[in-house]
Fold:
Amino acid sequence: MLLQSVFWCCLSIRSTVLLQDVPALVTILMALNAICFAGFAFLFDRSRWLNVLAAPFLLGNLILTITDQMGIYDWIVLILNLTTMVFWIYLYKRRGKAAQK
Structure:
């Protein structure tokens, strides 16, 4: 999730600095996405409810990625989202098994 945060931060900075045809709202949403990914990354083991919130957040990002036009950045985000989702499921299940012991 931390890699996703860095990626979204770079995209938002790039769209701000290069003044592309990216609306300000989209740039703000990219920055907020970076903040959310960083928050979930740093607080993953802190609270169970954050883990529960991370699942719909990841799923929403995955759905929004594939419902848009697919450019190179969308493919990168799709790969990052799928990888993050797989690792999240793995860590969540591993954490549950450790709690049962």
Observations:
- The CA atoms of residues 2 and 42 lie 8 Å apart.
- The longest helix spans residues 72-100.
- The chain has four helices and no strands.
